Amino acid sequence: MTALTNHHMKKTAILCMLLAAPFWAAFAQNYDESKVPHYTLPDVLKTASGKTIRSEEKWEKLRRPEVLRLFEDHIYGQMPVGYDSIRYALTEDDRPEMDGKAVLKQIGVTVFRNGNSVQINVVLFVPTQAKKPVPVFLLINNRGKDLTDPTRAKKSEFWPAEMVVDSGFAIAAFHVSDLAPDNKDTYMTGVLQKLYPEQLKKDNGMKAIGAWAWGASRVMDYFGTDKDIDSKKVIVVGHSRGGKTSLWAAAQDRRFAACVTNCSGNTGAALARRQFGERISRINTTFPHWFNNNYKKYNDKENALPVDQHMLIALIAPRPVYATNASKDLWADPKGTFLAVKAAEPVYALYGVKPELPKEMPGIDMPVIGPHFGYHNHEGEHNMTAYDWDKFIRFAKQF
Question: How large is the average pLDDT for residues 267-288?
Fold first, then answer.
């Protein structure tokens, strides 16, 4: 190799590095607390016109609808409510399982609109010892379908049906792929193309996460018809992207009695303005099919957002919310999650709920479980485990 060629290759390599620098800078994630920028959260109790909200009545009438619309327009998309009809078909009904401790139901929830339909397949275990309708945990499953295996040939801590049944609760699940495949090229082939194609043409139209949340509400419709289920005590649960969805489902549909959001991170329960771990630009680039088109305007511009995630949690008030993190999952910003839940407390106070969380973030494996708020940061990786479910059950038993 000649010196001239070597020199030319070095110049080319340097040029490529310079051209790539802006791209890599956009994806350089901060895990250093000292580098979190100064930020000011939007005031959840101040309307767009500058009016300060001081009562439950004014929150319900003025500010809550305003905040909900901001999330629809700028992040999650509209939530369509109309459809022509809905049908429930039990493909498995009251089959004894778990050595007689539970019965299995499998339900096809089919929704029709404009001559098209989608079917949501629900797996449900109900404790046999129950003498009255029971509360139920509903998982929005974004992982493998085998994790919610109705035959119980495969058991998983991610959905520990036996543990939940033994505690006296029913447990249910549906898979996100029934509504929108979790794929940027095919996400539109379910609910969006079949039932709500108009949403695909709108910059504030719903995409995958909106479709999954919509599906959770259709399962909620079914629970209202099942005599074994107390439909006033349905706890919606999600992990990671499913945890983003459980928050949005609970914010939109007030029939959900409580929300569990496990390791949901950016555009879930963590504050965007901290710019810690995953950021908006990264999530919109890697998963462009999750949120509406308008959200792309806030790539690397978190402070321009008219909302932050404490306001999403506030939309669930006064219903209980449990948020979690894992110690090795800095991507999901554990501190930002705790701070978001804490910053929602002023809205709960309008309903007479006193602060339940400590001023400082609790230590690892030191859960705080109150009747309205729960939080823990468990030792481990980005996952949902028996440790987490044990705390969710304790939380649910308080209300």
Answer: 98
Instruction: Evaluate whether residue 139 is within a structural domain.
Output: yes
pLDDT of residue 28: 59
What CATH number did the domain enclosing 199 receive? 3.40.50.1820
Residue 240 lies inside a defined structural domain of this protein? yes
pLDDT tens across 94-108, in order? Answer: 889 999 999 999 999
Residue 240 designated active-site: yes
Band (5; pLDDT cuts 50, 70, 90) = very low
Distance CA 214, CA 195 (A): 12
pLDDT tier, 92 (very low <50, low <70, confident <90, very high otherwise): confident
- Total number of domains constituting the chain: 1
The domain in which residue 340 lies consists of 44-397
What are the tens digits of pLDDT across the range 197-233?
999 999 999 999 999 999 999 999 999 999 999 999 9
Q: Say if residues 206 and 217 touch (Cβ distance below 8 Å).
A: no
Catalytic residue, chosen from 117, 156, 281, 382, is 382
Report the distance separating Cα 298 and Cα 370, nearest Å. 35
Catalytic residue among 177, 240, 246, 264: 240
Task: Check pLDDT > 50 for residue 331.
Answer: yes
Facing residues of 107 across strands? 90, 122
14 assigned to some structural domain: no
pLDDT over 90 (residue 14): no
4 lies in a domain? no
ω into 358 cis (within 30 of 0): no
Contacts of 88 (CB under 8 A, 6+ apart): 107, 108, 109, 110, 222, 225
Q: At what angle do helices 208-223 and 241-252 cross, to 10 degrees?
A: 60
74 in catalytic set: no
